[in-house]
Structure formats: structure tokens, C-alpha cells
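Look at a sample.

——
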Amino acid sequence: MELILPDAGGPGIFRSDGAKFSARAAAFMESWKTEPAEGDLPRFVMDLLGKEGLLGNLSGATGKSMKAVDGSARNTTGQGLKDYRYDRARWLRAAKWITDGFSSGETEARAQLLRIMALCWELFRSAKSKRGTLSFDDMISRAREAVEAEPSLPGRFLHVIPESLVELDVTFRSRQAVMDTVNSLFRHIWSDGVARSIEKEFSPLAPPMSREWWPGRQETTIMPFELILPDSDDLTPKAKTGDLRIAAMRTLADRILEAVGSGATVWDSDGKGSFAPRPVTFRDFAVLVPSRAIYDQIEEVFIEERGIPTYFEGNRNYFGRGEVRDAVSLLEAIADPDDALAMASFLASPLSGLSPEEAALLVARSRGEGSSPGSLFEEHFPREASRFEKLRREGLAAGPSRPLTDLLEDSSVLLSYPSWKRPRVAANLRRAVDLAREYEASMGMSLAGCASYLRYMTRKGIESKEADTLGENDDMVRVMTVHSAKGLEFPVVAVTGLEQGLRTRGEGQRLVPSPHLGVVFTTLPESRRQEGDPEILGGAIHDIFETQETWEEKQRLLYVACTRARDSLILCGASRWIDGRPRARRYSWLETVTSWIESNGGKLTPTAAKEGTLPPGRPKEEVRKGERVQLPPEGDRSLEKISATAYALIRYCPFAFRMRHRQGLDISWEMPGGDSVGGADMGSLAHWILRRWDLRAETLSLYDPLREGAGLGSVLP
């Protein structure tokens, strides 16, 4: 221990202290004066972490020696003794497994289960053999066998090797400062190799020094690297991880606004076949997250607080969108105008045509006077109330999809939203129309029923993906998962969620398939349990292997995220600061980044907010209400010929008719659908029959390919 914790003191100091911990420390140091050999590691771990070991029982441990060892451990490992012991509890189970193996009960249970699995596998293999089929795993294993039998075989297929398997020594993506940062970080992470199972050293990124444009590539002015770790002391002592993450997102949002407002430059095409610096815009920024769980905090800060135009790729929070909830409130209000809560929710939404101030005054007056919001709405805003009444009557007559369709055709509705939000709002309202139509087809035309169904979906937070509405030239910050960003690159990349730890198998699983051990139990079946049985080790040993593999994969994912950046890389984490250091979770990117900076002699300090006034994201656009105008006099009008299909389409969905016949866009249900029934092929068949049929029911059966029973004529009303 003198080698590991040199400032903790020697055996003599521990013997002079009468505390129990000091006695254990002295005995431990006597037993382990030198570094343990590989074969002695299990016994070393037992002496360190076991029940009777040095750190086995720290409850009530006090004294100068205890404080000295705890302080020395914090300086060396960044953790106190209790945290150190907790994070390495699996070591103790591994040591028991190495020395004692599985218990007889666990071994017998695993053996029986493995025999059953082997029998099932043999049945599966036999069935494949009889059918002459191969699985994907079979193709991989057969290819390996072929290569082992004929080593020269791979050389004949170099032309089909995927690009991802070809080593590229030179990268044309990143500027030198970003490249140096990434190389330094991953030299530290992979100092012992890329992975334990892969005998490969880290290959650093190399610049294209021979290119004449490379010196000019370094002239961009945006900051090449920054680590954002907000000061937790600025928050309340009870602040949770979500609060810390919100603070981190605010700092990140301010950095984006500052870069755009100051005219910082990035490297881009000049439109003349060359490249040159240009001012950074919102669409140059990509915020990468390890999982979509962070989307809510980013949206709260970027859109609601800072007004930054932001697009969330693959967002599954469709039923949490404001415009979807507003559409549900509309259906609830037109289903029952006397429902004060539903009516107030509708009035407060942009769909009502009222400003937030007007809606707030109307609802406040309704509560003060005890009158219904609907009657005050009709009294003070007759034009908007008339439109609401029209929607209500249409909904009662034609079903819940009709008023939602009318909203899409009313330009004033979309004009009430900021311009960068309108494509998303239109797509989400269009989806609400589709959901309402699905309800009508399966359940009926009830307004209240459809509203209740959609409200249930929003209340439960059912996951549903939003429509993709991002245009190529839309000036918006893109937020996406790291996995989605593979193969892409952006001028500025912000990697968030550094504080997240590993996610391994869920708790409560009694039986775990394991690629390392075949199958393991976390607890034995009741029929096999006996009092005094030793601890079940299978689940813990599997977790050790899985944790290592998952951590290596997570490190590779961080490499993917960092190498997406061309001009600037921002690492953003959220953590509480303790004793001048961020408290990083075990197996988190933040733990890695913290270790990297400190190993290079750097000092971590909380990120301070920039002083001064930051430029706004986007100015709030005033609600533009439609005004009554005189229409030009009607001139000579002519009728346009349309096909029966076009007429049916305009009757069914005017919006689809406009897309198909005015904008020339494809309708999803008209596009080929593989081997599925319907689509354009069904329409072609219908036209073929209509051109030949004499419109008499008794002759329709002639076109029935099966010629069975009454034929197609039986389906006519």
C-alpha cells in the first residue's frame, strides 16, 4: 500500500493508532509489501474488499489513519474509500469465482439449462440442413472456415471490402487544432490498445500537409475546442442531474448565439470550386446526444428560453408537441363547448386566433364573473367565435378529421407560429388528421371519443416519431444521436451527455443469456434453493465481462462523435463539483475527459457564463391575423376537366389533391409498396376494369379472376 498510497503513512503509524481500521491497515501492509503477482490477485482482492478485509467494513471507521488513507485515496483515484469499494464490488465476486468457482447448486442448474439449449440448437440446425438454408451467422462462420483453409482467398475480393474496413491515414475533414485535440484525447483513452479483444494500437488522425490549401484551412476564427462544465454552486444544494443538465444546455446555447452573433468563421465551399472561411450560421451546429432522453432539456433551453431554431432528428415525442396538444384541445372544445377547461385550453392555443394576452384576460374574466369562456369568446371576439362554430358544426356533421383539415387550409393558423416552426407544425397537424381518420374508420365519427383517444395518447406520453421536415437549406441547429451522426460531418459539433454512465442488463432478470458463459442465473429457482447456499456468482461474472465490452463500445462511440467536427468541438457535461473536481460517474465520458485533462497537467474549472448581452436567437414574430379585404371582381370562369380519380381524391382529402395535382408531389399511398396489396397497381387495375365494364352488376363477375360464387358483382350495394 506504500507504493499505491504513498502519503497515507507506514505500518508504524497504523500500529500506534488503536482504531480497528488502523489494525486492519497495518496487517494489510505487512501482507502486501510488494506488488501481487498475477496468481495472487484474487487473494489480494479478498484481503482488500472481503468481509474481513481492509475496506470490508467502513461503518463507524474513524481516527487519523482512516482520514489519512481516505485523503490519499481521493488524491490518487479521485474517490473516497466508500465510493472506491462500491465501484469495485464486482472484483470481490470475480475473486470468489476464480478461487472457488460456482456453487454446486448453480453449476447443476446451469448444466441442465445448457443441455436443454444444446438440444434446441441441434433441432434448429437439423431443420436448416433439411431445408438447405443458411443463416447470416452461418455465412460468416463458413467464410471464416474458407479463409482458414485457403489464406490467399481474401486477396481476390479486395474490390468489395467496405470502406469502413480500409485504414485511412490522412483525413481531410478537420482543421489541425481539432485534429490535435482528438488525437490527444484518444491517445490517452487507448494507450493500451483500442480494445482488449483487438490487438491494434490507436492510429492518430494525420493532416493532408501536401495540399496547397491546407495552411489556409487553419484561418477560421471559431474556437476549436471547449469543455463546458457549469458550476453546480450556482444552483440549489438539492439540484438534481436534470437541473445541472439544464444549466449546461444554457451555457451551450449561449455559446452558439455568441458564435453566430460575433461573425465567427468556419471553412466552406466558396461556390467557385474552392474553399474559404465564411460566417457561421445555426445550420453549421450539430448537437450530438448519447440518447434521446436529453431531447427535452435541449428543447426547453434552445427553443423555449433562447429562441434558437432547432430541429430534432428522429424525435419520438409527437404527442408531446404543443400543436398536437392544441389540436386535441380543439376537438375537446368543439365536442363540449360547455367544458370550461377544454374551452380555456383551446382559447390559450394559437389555433383560437387570440393572442396569449387576450386569451389570459378572457379566461380570468370568466373565472371572476363565473361565466362560461365560450359565451365571453362569442361576445368579445365574434369573428374568431364564428370560425370556431363553423369548425364545431363541420365536426358534428363530418367527423373529427374535418375541422383539423380546415385548420391546415387556414393560412392564419400557420402564420401564428414562428416561420422556422411552420413546417413541423404543418406536418404534425397533417398527422393528427390521419389519426382522426383512422379513428373514424375503426370506431366511428364521435368527436368526444376521438378527443378522448388522442388525450389518452398525450397523457401517457406514447412514443411516436415526428415527420421529417428539415430542408437542406433550413438555418436550424440539428440535434441527433451519435449513432445517427455516423458518416456525417459538421462545422461545429457539441457532444452532450458526458455525465451519463453505462446501461447494462436490467434489474430483476433471473436468467441472462451470456456470450461468455452461455447462460447464467442471477438467482436460483425456488425448488433448487437451500438455506446456507453460497452467493450466486453467474450474473455478477457476466456483468464484469459485459461492462468491459459495453465500456469499450462507448469509448468508440465517443470517437465517432468527436471526429464529426470540422472546425470546432465542444464537449458538454453536467456534474456536481466536489473539492474542486467534477464528480464523474464511473464509466462515463466525463470520467474519461477529466482523466485526460488532468493527465496532461490541465486544471479543471467550472465554465463561467459569458458576460455582456448575447444576441437573440430569432426575433419573436408577431401573430399575423387575417384581415377582411375586398376580393377582385369575378371574371370569366371556365371549368377544368379532372379525372374520376382526381375527383375522388379531392373529395377524400383536398390537401392530398393539392400535393398531387398542383405541386406535383407523390402521395405516400400511391407509391409502390413492394409485395403489398394496393398502391398504384390497384389503381391501374381499377382503371383497366372501368374501361371495359358496361356498368351492369351481372356482368362484373366476368372480370373476377377466380370465377367463384357470385363473383365481384356480390360486392356492389
About this structure: Residues 187 and 202 are 7 Å apart (CA to CA). Residues 104-131 form the longest helix (28 residues).
